[in-house]
Amino acid sequence: MTAFYLKVWLEDELAHLGTCPWEEDLRFAREVCSRLGVPLEVRSLQRPYWDRVVRYAISELEAGRTPSPDVLCNQHIKFGAFLDEIDSAFERVASGHYARREESSGRVLLKRGIDPVKDQTYFLSRLSQEQVARALFPLGGLQKSEVRRLAREIDLPNQDRRDSQGICFLGKIPYRDFVRHHLGEREGEIVEVDTGRVLGRHKGYWFHTIGQREGLGLSQGPWFVHGKDVSRNVIYVVHADRLAGSSRESFEVEAVHWIGDPPARRELAVRVRHGRSLHAGTLDLEGSRGRVCLEDRDRGIAPGQFAVFYDGEVCLGGATIAA
Hints:
This protein is of the alpha+beta class and 323 residues long. It has helices spanning 22-36, 46-62, 69-86, 129-134, 144-153, 175-183, 243-246; strands at residues 3-7, 40-44, 93-94, 99-104, 107-112, 135-136, 188-192, 198-202, 223-229, 234-239, 248-258, 267-271, 279-286, 289-298, 306-311, 314-321.
């Protein structure tokens, strides 16, 4: 058994924006491995991370879409470039994701973790059958509270460390500073979608996502981002009083990806963002594109996000929201 620390922080390129906690992370990893008598190797995957994840995130923001870089990190880095690098030296790779795998009829199923709050199958939805087959998820059958209790029982150095939050490659770097560094600022109008009234100004549509409430700087709110006009650099907002009318129950998807075989039925559960919320809905496919219809409405559906599909406990795969 060997432990690996994957170094993807962009501390050299973004050092002037803030601090990246990779050194603190590595210190904890070394202390845990030392306590357990497990050798630790550090692998730098910064170049493939930049090429396959960060470039994608920047280009999606510039296009006015909402990227999910952590989904691509799992697909292309943790279970991609890393598996390629260790090749056949290790049969299985265990990660700390809250998910489960189950072998059934010659296939490997990706199943939701039993902790509904911590379940991370949303971020694993673009893995292939081969990647899931090589993965182990030892935490998937545990509640987070149980993991904390076990860590205290064996006195691990990181037993009381706070959960990591935010985009994995940013660390403690403010997200807005990262976006400003790559895309700059360009002032534009904030417009009420119902009336066309100009309510304020913003510093670039790429700083805002559909459904966003915080950071608009508008009075007499709350206001929510409803849409964007990328060519005119306009942000459209809707007041909370009229929010229900602006939510959606259907959307188009593209780049549909299945972990195993495509589902035999169109009635599926759908998750449009990481979290507990699952919508009942249907998926009508035509090749690698499709249309999703939800039984209830959602106000935060945005192009670029991933829609992830479930059949009961099984994560089937996902697709990119196109429109």
